[in-house]
Design brief:
Oligomer: single chain
GO molecular function, one term: ATP binding
Distance between the termini: 56 Å
Shape: elongated
Radius of gyration: 28 Å
Family: Belongs to the AAA ATPase family.
Protein name: ATP-binding protein
Strand content: 5-15%
Keywords: ATP-binding, Nucleotide-binding
Helix content: 40-55%
Number of strands: 12
Organism: Aequorivita antarctica
C-alpha cells in the first residue's frame, strides 16, 4: 500500500502540472489572457527526492519536458479522463470538434482519446517551428516508444495519428508498483519463464560456459559495437543461438539465467500451439507478438524447435507447401528480431541445415560426466538434506548416468519420502527407488 500511496501522490502532481500546461496552451492558442508566454515556462514537478516507480523511470531515462507530457497524457484516460474533456469542445464556426486537437473518436468509449497530434497541439499550438521539431524527435526511436512504455500500433503507419497508449506492462508499474506482463493465451502463444537459481547452480562443461559467456557479452556490449562503433551496417542487431542436447541438461535454465542476468523478460514460445492453431494464419497471429517482443527487448526461447524448424523433405499436399511458407515467414521474423532468440532441441540433426547456418552460436549441452554428476548430487542432496551414513555420492555419480534434470526428479521423490517420515533425511533406498523410477520412463533398468 505504501508504494501505491507514493504513486498516487506523484501522479497527482503530474496531472496538476499537465492541467496547468493545457490551460496555458489553450489560452495562448485562443489569444486569451495568460501569465505565461510559453507552456515551457511551467516547470514539471521536481522528482529528485521521489522514490516512486514512476519517478524512478522518469529519472532513469532522463525524460524531458515533452516526454513527461506525453507520458502523463497517455496515463490520464485511465486515471482522470475528465481532465481531457476540455478537448471535446466544438468549433462553433464549423459545428464540429477542433481538428488540431487530434484524438480518436470511439463510439464504444466516451471521452477523449489522445494522439501524438494532441501532444503536438499542447506543446506547440500555432508555432510551426515547434511542431516540426516535435515531428523530428517523436519517432519510433523516441525513448518512450523504444523502451515499450508507450505502445506502437503496428497496424498503421507511425505518425501524428498514433494513439498515445500506455503499455499494460508500465501501466501496472505506474499504478500498482509492479510490471504487468502478458499472459499465455491462444492469441499470445508464449509464457514468461523465470528462475530463482543462480549461475553457480548451472553445472555444465567448460565449453558450454564459454559459449554462454559469448552470448552474455553480446547482450552487454552490442549497443557499443553497433551504435558507438558504427557497425550497424556490418552486423544485424539480433543474436540467434541454438541450444541442443538431451533433456534436463540446462537449456531452459540457461535461457532463464540470461534473462535474469540482463534484466530482460524471457518468453518461451509454444510451438505446438503455433503448429496446431496458426498454420495458414501465422503472419496474422504472430506479427503482433513479434512487434511487442521487439519493442520491449524480450528474449525469445523456442523450445522443441524441431517441431517447426525440422527437416521438411516430403511435401505431400498443398497444405504442407503452405505450411512451409508460413515457417519461412516465422524464420524471417526471427532473423529480423533485434534481440536474442534461442532455439532449443534435443537433437541437432533434426533441425534443417538451412536454419542452422543462420545461428551466431550453437551450444551443445552434453550429458554431464561423472565429475559433473557428483557436483549435482552434492549440490542438490548434501546441501539440502541429511544423508544416510553409508550413501556414497561418488559411487552414485559413477554408476548412474543421469542428467541434472533427472537427478532433480530423484530429489523430488526423496523429498516426498522424507516428508512422509517427517524427517529431513534421505535414505539410500529412497535414492535407488527414485533412480529406478527415472530409468523406467526411458525403458531402462538398474
Amino acid at each position: 500500500m505504501e508504494v501505491i500511496e507514493k504513486l498516487a501522490k506523484t501522479l497527482q502532481k503530474e496531472i496538476n502540472w499537465f492541467k496547468s500546461v493545457v490551460d496555458t496552451s489553450l489560452a495562448l492558442y485562443f489569444k486569451n489572457e495568460s501569465n505565461q508566454k510559453s507552456v515551457y515556462a511551467i516547470a514539471p514537478p521536481d522528482l529528485d527526492k521521489d522514490s516512486s516507480p514512476y519517478a524512478e523511470i522518469v529519472k532513469e531515462l532522463q525524460l524531458g519536458f515533452e516526454e513527461r507530457l506525453m507520458l502523463i497524457l497517455a496515463m490520464i484516460p485511465y486515471l482522470k479522463p475528465d481532465v481531457l474533456d476540455v478537448f471535446l469542445i466544438k468549433n462553433q464556426n464549423l459545428n464540429s470538434g477542433f481538428s488540431e486537437f487530434g484524438g480518436i473518436n470511439n463510439a464504444n468509449k466516451p471521452g477523449f482519446t489522445p494522439t501524438l497530434e494532441t501532444a503536438y497541439f499542447i506543446l506547440g499550438g500555432y508555432n510551426l517551428t515547434t511542431r516540426l521539431k516535435l515531428l523530428a524527435t517523436t519517432n519510433t526511436e523516441n525513448i518512450l516508444f523504444k523502451k515499450g512504455i508507450l505502445e506502437i500500433d503496428a497496424q498503421q503507419q507511425f505518425g501524428v495519428h498514433q494513439k498515445l497508449q500506455i503499455s499494460s506492462e508500465y501501466y501496472g508499474l505506474f499504478t500498482m508498483g509492479k510490471k504487468h506482463l502478458p499472459q499465455y493465451s491462444t492469441i499470445f502463444p508464449a509464457n514468461q519463464i523465470t528462475t530463482a537459481l543462480k549461475w553457480e547452480d548451472l553445472v555444465v562443461a567448460a565449453a558450454i560456459t564459454e559459449a554462454i559467456l559469448e552470448i552474455k557479452d553480446w547482450l552487454k556490449h552490442s549497443p557499443k559495437i553497433l551504435k558507438e562503433w558504427n557497425f550497424e551496417n556490418n552486423f544485424k542487431k539480433g543474436y540467434r543461438a541454438l541450444f541442443y542436447g538431451p533433456s534436463g541438461t540446462g537449456k531452459t535454465l540457461t535461457a532463464s539465467l540470461l534473462g535474469k542476468e540482463t534484466n530482460r523478460p524471457v518468453y518461451r514460445v509454444d510451438l505446438s500451439l503455433v503448429v496446431s492453431k496458426y498454420i495458414g494464419e501465422t503472419e496474422k497471429n504472430l506479427s503482433r507478438f513479434f512487434d511487442e517482443a521487439q519493442q520491449k527487448d524480450w528474449i525469445l526461447f523456442f523450445d522443441e524447435a524441431d517441431a517447426l524448424f525440422g527437416k521438411r523433405t516430403n511435401l505431400r499436399d498443398a497444405h504442407d507447401r503452405y505450411a512451409n511458407q508460413e515457417v519461412a515467414y516465422l524464420l524471417q521474423r526471427i532473423e529480423d528480431f533485434s534481440g536474442l532468440v534461442i532455439l532449443s532441441t534435443n537433437l541437432k540433426n533434426n533441425i534443417d541445415a538451412a536454419f542452422t547456418r543462420r545461428f551466431q552460436n550453437m551450444v551443445h549441452f552434453s550429458a554431464p560426466d561423472s565429475q559433473q554428476r557428483k557436483l549435482l548430487w552434492e549440490h542438490l542432496f548434501k546441501e539440502n538434506f541429511e544423508l544416510e551414513s553409508f550413501i556414497d555420492l561418488d559411487d552414485l555419480a559413477e554408476r548412474y548416468e543421469l542428467t541434472g534434470g533427472e537427478i532433480t526428479e530423484v530429489l523430488r521423490y526423496c523429498a516426498l519420502q522424507a516428508a512422509r517420515r517427517n524427517e529431513k533425511k534421505v535414505l539410500l533406498n529412497d535414492i535407488i527407488t527414485g533412480i529406478r523410477s527415472v530409468y523406467r520412463k526411458q525403458n531402462k533398468t538398474i
